[in-house]
Amino acid sequence: MADLSSRNPDWWRQAVIYQVYPRSFADADGDGLGDLRGVTQRLNHLATLGVDALWLSPFYPSELADGGYDIADHRDVDPRLGTLDDFDAMVAEAHRLGLKVIVDIVPNHTSHQHPWFREALRAGPGSAARDRYVFRPGRGARGELPPTDWQSVFGGSAWRRVPDGQWYLHLFAPEQPDLSWDHEEVRADFRTTLRFWSDRGVDGFRVDVAHGLAKDLTEPLRDVGDAGATGEEALLRVPPGSHPYWDRDEVHEIYRDWRKVFDAYTPPRTAVAEAWVPDSRRALYARPDELGQAFNFEYLQARWDAAQLRGVIASSLAAARTAGASATWVLSNHDVVRHASRLVLPPGTDADAWLLSGGRAPRIDREAGLRRARAATLLMLALPGSSYVYQGEELGLPEVADLPAEVLQDPIWEQTGHVRKGRDGCRVPLPWTTAGPSYGFGPGAAWLPQPESFASYAVEAQSGAEGSTLELYRTALRLRRKLLEGETLAWTPHAPEGVLDFTRAPGWRCVTNLTAEPVPLPPGEVLLASTPPPTAGTLPPDTTVWLG
User: What span, in angstroms and rounded, lies between the C-alpha atoms of 367 and 453?
Assistant: First the structure.
């Protein structure tokens, strides 16, 4: 593993970071919910895998209205997940194993159970307590209509009325009221939060909804019409930086302020933005005087298509260079269909409709999905920059698309009136062993049911098994550490159509065949292949090879 005593401020630039969704990683106390002691007990899995850091999704006090992203106290641990002492023990063990620790920070909103929001409800209209949030009177003769047409990411209006008649803004679930970042007390409190976790040994932060903090709250608030769509689609309908609540230019002042906090530590604390914005705007968040890095969602959203992937790779590397940052690559996370399933959905498939069908319309070929997932992983790990690995992808886990309605936990299900099933299918707890009530996740049943097929994907089933997906990841990460130099690549001229082919310093080569037919295998020593080693001088379909 990397030498944590080196105090290298640039450790993150080409790191492999493993995302831990703690409620689904490992359950030490047997209540069916993953916890911090479970994470600590399984950290050796990450060290053996060969990653550089773990990113811990929210573990704060929460009623789980949005999987832990509804936070009642940003400087404590949810009692169901452990204590601050458990957190400190986890950080100490991670550092002992040579792993950096990144935690999620959620600055756009709090839980409706947060002391500030409870105070705001008690204090009433016009109070200083309400100024920390976004409260407004309604429209209509009696204020019965929402203040604007702004829409929640989870569906429906982004406004919720309270008994005294005012409305508050929630760009996500109603249980997640948005903070007003115009308020200096909000800004000061988050500086305190950054220092609190940094002082406990945290090495960096993943910033949730980084593009949502700054809002145009000048009166009268303006409707957005067609720009009320979510994600990048909304931002393409207005001049850059001018949307009333997404990706406003003023947000960068907040992160320049945060950078002063990060740089007060040795080495400086790192940060990565979750910003669903166009490529050219994402680079702004990654500037060295702001967060330093931003997630690359274009790569995650790209089809299994050589031309599209090459374009995304080229533009992402260029955007990172513009910001003085390194690129980021991710194939799966806690919000999207796992790529072992997603990559074999026919082009144009509506993922929400597919989930509603229980994964039956269309049915997917799991073997073909795993084949593509393995090839995509080796391609990702060969690219310059940081790679983010979501828990379970090293096992080749598919999406659990057939979870019954009665077990669903994601608020999207209810918020959309059962039109969108939500994200629970990628959050099903991990299988560690081939037997047991939750396949080693804990001593009892898990909070989301696991399919019987998970037994064959378990760590126990794959560890030491030649050709397994787990061993592929372990081998790839060991080899990557030896091969990696520089932050550039050179495309090989005249590559066959449907093939991605590039070299990295000091001369190794990555070739991916994204077609349905074998292609000629270039000369060189096969260092690693995503499928059994190629024979007869050909590279099979949906296969990546590293050549020396």
Answer: 13
Is the distance from CB of 330 to CB of 387 less than 8 angstroms?
A: yes
Which candidate, 151, 73, 169, 172, places its Cα nearest to that of 113? 73
The amino acid at 116:
W
Q: Give the C-alpha separation, 483 to 507, whole Å.
A: 9
pLDDT digits (tens, 9 = 90+) for 441-494: 999 999 999 999 999 999 999 999 999 999 999 999 999 999 999 999 999 999
Entry field: residues in the chain: 548
Which H or E run contains 204?
strand 204-207
CB count in 10 Å sphere of residue 84 = 13
* Per-residue pLDDT tens digits for 315-345: 999 999 999 999 999 999 999 999 999 999 9
| H or E element at residue 502 | strand 499-504
- Alpha-carbon Rg for the chain, nearest whole angstrom, is 23
Q: Give the predicted TM-score (pTM) of the model.
A: 0.95
User: Are 514 and 530 within 8 A, CB to CB?
Assistant: no
Selection from 402, 352, 393 nearest residue 373 by Cα = 393
Helix, strand, or coil here: 34?
coil
The DSSP letter of residue 347 is: T
The one-letter amino acid code at 182 reads D
Burial class of residue 62 in the structure, from the number of CB atoms within 10 Å of its CB (0-12 exposed, 13-18 middle, 19+ buried): buried
Locate 145 and state its tokens.
């209509």
Give the tens place of pLDDT for each residue, 518-548.
999 999 999 999 998 667 789 999 999 999 9
115-124 long-range Cβ contacts below 8 angstroms, 24+ apart:
115/72, 115/73, 117/177, 121/162, 124/164
Using CA atoms, how far residue 345 sits from 163, 368, 446, in Å, is: 46, 10, 28
- pLDDT number for residue 1: 36
Mean pLDDT, the chain, rounded, equals: 95
Cα–Cα distance between 488 and 392 in angstroms, integer? 29
Residues 437 and 445 sit within 8 Å (Cβ to Cβ): yes
- Calculated CA dihedral for residues 46, 27, 66, 389, nearest 10 degrees: 10
* Distance between CA atoms of residues 538 and 474, nearest Å: 25
- Contact call for residues 459 and 431 (beta carbons, < 8 A): yes
Q: Which amino acid is at 298?
A: E
What is the residue type of 29?
D
- pLDDT beyond 60 at 5: no
